[in-house]
Amino acid sequence: MTDTSDFLPTQPPDALAGARRPDPAPLNAVDLALPLVAPARRARVLLVDDQPMHLQVLRRALVADYQLFVAASGPQALRVCREQQPDLVLLDVVMPDMDGFQVLQQLKGDPDTTDTPVIFVTAHGGDEIETQCLMAGAVDFISKPVNASVVRARVKTHLTLKFQSDLLRDLAFLDGLTGVSNRRQFDERLALEWGRAQRNGTPLSLILLDVDFFKAYNDHYGHQAGDVCLQQLASVLKANLRRPTDLVARYGGEEFVCLLPDAPLEEGLAMAHKLLQAVKQQAIAHQFSGVADVVTVSLGVATRQGEGSAGATAADLLALADAQLYHAKHAGRAQACGAVLQPVVAAS
Known about the structure:
Mean pLDDT: 86
Strand order of the largest sheet: 2-1-3-4-5
Oligomer: single chain
Helix content: 40-55%
């Protein structure tokens, strides 16, 4: 049996690097994308094949330009996709235990990987197999034995398309005034994170935040100043939510919402108080506020606490956060209130 230990995806990218091809001007992720969407990191490409020799050929063609990950089986490929979120996958069709079509089906069925482009690589040529690959959801098809120049060209093309698509999606999900996520993005992420929390039995916290006496601020300082104020607050919220999985979005008007996956109530409340203080420290003058001479916020925190919230829905979580925000407002504003979402008992 061939030893594939040298190709395990847990190795750092540098461990996969061999002799670099002598191209005079290697491409990188920035060259492959529009200026507004190019990631600061190198593009990530996953190579999947059960034959080490074929992995080596692909690696040599691409190692100079991309951060590479490899997998020698379908299950390994799925694990790397979940953990590393590659930008593109080059996937062998014929593999033992789980073939490329089965791998692609699982990738398409997972919300985290459904948009990851896949190029099939196979020794089986002909129109029939190529059509089958494309109908399964692959973005392209490369025949073995592979030509290094063709591989590089196809990879470059599909990464360019992916980054352009990412840009358009990002623009569709951004609030035009504040630059943070919009309500549409929040709704989609809430559904996604709620489903993940249900599957894994993990907590999920949500913070609903409202600017205190914002109508008075607009009335006395003007709507243009009000817009600037919201922009400043959005920057503060975004700067304090540092985990990659956290989300801050403009919920509507002067309301913002923060989504905190894997955060129990105590962490949600701690973040709410941190945001409360961070906004105060901005010292945005508000002489017409009823609680302070600077802009303040009130916050409501709601948490899905693992199995303790059985039967509840994402809408219930949002409603609880709204109720806690109401409590914070009626308790004097400029404070945070929170609660755990209780299980919903079906009527007998």
